[in-house]
Amino acid sequence: MTPEHRTQTGAAELRSPHSGVNLYAPETGAADPAADPLLPESAAAVVLGGDKPLSVKTLQGWRVSGHGPRFVKLGSGLRAAVRYRRSELLRFLADCERGSTAEHSAKGAGA
Length: 111
What we know:
This protein is 36% helix and 15% strand. The chain is α+β, with helices and mostly antiparallel strands. It has a domain at 28-95. The strands form two sheets. A three-stranded antiparallel sheet has the order 3-5-4. A two-stranded antiparallel sheet has the order 1-2. A hairpin with a 5-residue loop joins strand 1 (4-6) and strand 2. The longest helix is centred in the C-terminal third of the chain and has 11 residues, at 86-96. It is globular, with a radius of gyration of 15 Å.
């Protein structure tokens, strides 16, 4: 079974293989840590890519170049674990929305 499937109501669900949390669930605003889980790179790549997940290497490249979604580094070493907040991934996707290629060029010029 793939990690993404449809519920009985037809809503998309993507369950974390680690915690079972629905990664597509809307924000609840609750203080519960499960409401905004920290996701490993592989789960973040699925959230950002949907049916065609991004490469983890793409996320790593974005971090090096300073592009892409904000991330959490758990530790100070070079090999410290990296995680992404679900809310930050959804914010990043919203910021990437464009209505036309002209809009994309205008936003890119001001960045």
